Amino acid sequence: MAEIRIRNTEERISGEENVRAFLSSQEVLYEHWNPAKLPAHLQDKFVLSDEEKAEILSTFDEEIRDLAARRGYRTWDIVALSDATPNLEELLKKFENVHTHTEDEVRAITAGKGIFIIKGTDDVGYFDVELEAGDVISVPEHKPHFFTLMDNRQIVAVRLFIETEGWIAHPFADPAFQKA
Ligand SMILES: [Fe+2]
């Protein structure tokens, strides 16, 4: 289940309802899928064939189509990252910059872990959302954020898009942001 860390105060928020209420106050959508639906051979696999990606998408087809119908997503795919990913270090360096998009950024984690760093309201400042399998998040359009891996450096997630070109990152230079 997702956990929040507010960077300015080190306050942590856990428990599904508390996390959902906090994220809702920050206009971030949070939902949860049942990660146990995933066949056992895919629950701990981070290098995926096209057939395995298709199997993950078909496992969560109902959840994906429900979310897409409610929120207007028209296309989706699977992203898998791990130490086996070519140029992972360079990719992470590229990821770890605060940016915005013209459409929301949706991720449904199906295996592993990941973390969104998001610029909250002025009274909250930057906060981290630590995500694990089953967590579904949507960061609204124009909200400064970045996504990166956690210490285990392994993740599989479903990405959903309205328009794939809406997902181009626009750098957001913010003197208020401090790493870690
Ligand atoms: Fe992004």
Automatic annotation (TrEMBL):
Binding site for Ni(2+): 99, 101, 105, 145
CDD domains, sorted: cupin_ARD
GO biological process terms on file: L-methionine salvage from methylthioadenosine; L-methionine salvage from S-adenosylmethionine
Pfam families: ARD (PF03079)
Site (May play a role in transmitting local conformational changes): 104
Pathway(s) this gene product operates in, as recorded in its UniProt entry: Amino-acid biosynthesis; L-methionine biosynthesis via salvage pathway; L-methionine from S-methyl-5-thio-alpha-D-ribose 1-phosphate: step 5/6
Protein keywords: Amino-acid biosynthesis, Dioxygenase, Iron, Metal-binding, Methionine biosynthesis, Nickel, Oxidoreductase
Reactions it catalyzes: 1,2-dihydroxy-5-(methylsulfanyl)pent-1-en-3-one + O2 = 3-(methylsulfanyl)propanoate + CO + formate + 2 H(+); 1,2-dihydroxy-5-(methylsulfanyl)pent-1-en-3-one + O2 = 4-methylsulfanyl-2-oxobutanoate + formate + 2 H(+)
Entry annotated with the keyword Amino-acid biosynthesis: yes
Record text on subunit structure and interactions: Monomer.
Family of this protein: Belongs to the acireductone dioxygenase (ARD) family.
The protein's name: Acireductone dioxygenase
Gene expressing this chain: mtnD
